[in-house]
DNA sequence: GACTACACATAGATTGGCTATGTATTGATC
DNA sequence: GATCAATACATAGCCAATCTATGTGTAGTC
C-alpha cells in the first residue's frame, strides 16, 4: 500500500498529457521523460516503466508521437520520441479538458 | 464518444470525494446526491447511476457511510445516506491528496 | 392510460495504470 | 575482472474504477 502521491496515477487519465507536455521541450527518450516528470513535480509523480512504455506505444499508434533509435548522452541506445502536430493538438485539448475538470471539482469541494 | 466533461470521470478517482463532500451538507438520497453534484458543477459533472450506486455501496462497506430507508420529499421511498466520522476523515484525506496531485500536475503542465 | 421524472440496483465491458518480470548496457567500486 | 547501481526498453497479467446497458418500480401529469 504505497502513498498515492508517489505514483503516476495521482490522477488517472493524466499520464498521456504529462508525457506530451514534456515532449514539447525537446524530443526525449522514455527514461528521460520519466526523470523529467519526476523532477518537475518535485518527486510527487513517479512514472513507472510499466505505465510509461505502453503509453508511449499507444500514443504512437494514435499518431501523436513518432520515434527513432538514437544514442543517449551516456552512449547507450535509446528510443527518442518526438511530438507530432497531431500530438500538439491533442495536448492542447487535454490541458483544456483538465482545467475544466478541476474547475468543476473545485466548485463541488469548495 | 461523448464529451469527457459531460461525465463523472472528468477525473477518475474523484467520485467518492464528491459524494462524501455532498453528504457533509445533509444526509441525502442517491438521486439527490447526483442532482446536487450536477448543479454545483454547473452541469460539468454528470454522475451516472451505474457509477453512483456501486460507489455508495463500496463506501458503506468501508464504513464511510450509513444508510436507511426513508421518504423523499415527493413521497417515494428512498435510501438516505449519512456520512460517518470515518467518512469525514476520509474526505479530509482525499481532498488533501487531490490538492497535492493537481499541484504536482500543474507544475508539469505549467 | 401514456409518458416523464424520480429512485434503486446489477451485470458486463472497458480502460488505465499497476506489479512483476525479462533483457541488456555503462560506469563505478572493490 | 567481478559485482553492483543506474540507465534503458519492453511485455504479461492483474485490478480498480467507471462506464453502458438493462431492469424494476412509483408519483405525478396530460
β-strand percent of chain A reads: 5-15%
Percentage of residues assigned to helices of chain A: 40-55%
- Let me know the largest β-sheet of chain A: 3 strands, antiparallel
User: Which structural class is indicated by helix and strand composition of chain A?
Assistant: alpha+beta
Q: Which pair of chains has the greatest number of interface residues, and how are they split between the two chains? A: A-B, 31 and 31 residues
- What is the tally of beta strands of chain A? 3
N-to-C SSE string of chain A, H for helix and E for strand: HEHHEEH
What can you see in these coordinates?
Two copies of one chain form a homodimer. With 110 residues, chain A is an alpha+beta fold. The longest helix of chain A is centred in the last third of the chain and has 25 residues. The first copy, chain A, is built from four helices and three strands; from the N terminus they run H-E-H-H-E-E-H. A three-stranded antiparallel beta sheet of chain A has the order 1-3-2. Chain A is globular and about 50 Å long. In chain A, a hairpin with a 5-residue loop joins strand 2 and strand 3. The relative contact order of chain A is 0.17. Chains A and B meet through helix 1 and helix 4 of A and helix 1 and helix 4 of B. The structure holds a DNA duplex (30 and 30 nucleotides).
Briefly characterize the structure.
The structure is a homodimer of 110-residue chains. Chain A contains 4 helices and 3 strands, in the order αβααββα.
Helix-strand layout with pairing:
The structure is a homodimer of 110-residue chains.
Chain A: H1 15-22, E1 28-29, H2 30-40, H3 49-61, E2 65-71, E3 77-83, H4 85-109
Antiparallel strand pairs in A: 1-3, 2-3
Helix pairs in contact in A: 1-4
The structure holds a DNA duplex (30 and 30 nucleotides).
Amino acid at each position: 500500500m504505497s502513498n498515492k502521491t508517489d505514483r503516476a496515477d495521482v490522477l488517472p487519465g493524466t499520464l498521456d498529457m504529462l508525457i506530451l507536455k514534456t515532449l514539447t521541450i525537446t524530443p526525449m527518450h522514455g527514461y528521460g521523460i520519466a526523470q523529467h516528470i519526476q523532477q518537475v513535480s518535485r518527486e510527487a509523480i513517479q512514472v513507472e516503466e510499466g505505465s510509461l512504455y505502453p503509453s508511449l506505444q499507444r500514443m504512437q499508434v494514435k499518431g501523436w508521437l513518432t520515434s527513432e533509435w538514437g544514442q543517449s548522452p551516456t552512449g547507450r541506445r535509446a528510443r527518442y520520441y518526438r511530438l507530432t502536430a497531431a500530438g500538439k493538438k491533442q495536448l492542447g485539448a487535454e490541458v483544456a479538458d483538465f482545467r475544466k475538470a478541476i474547475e468543476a471539482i473545485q466548485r463541488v469541494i469548495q
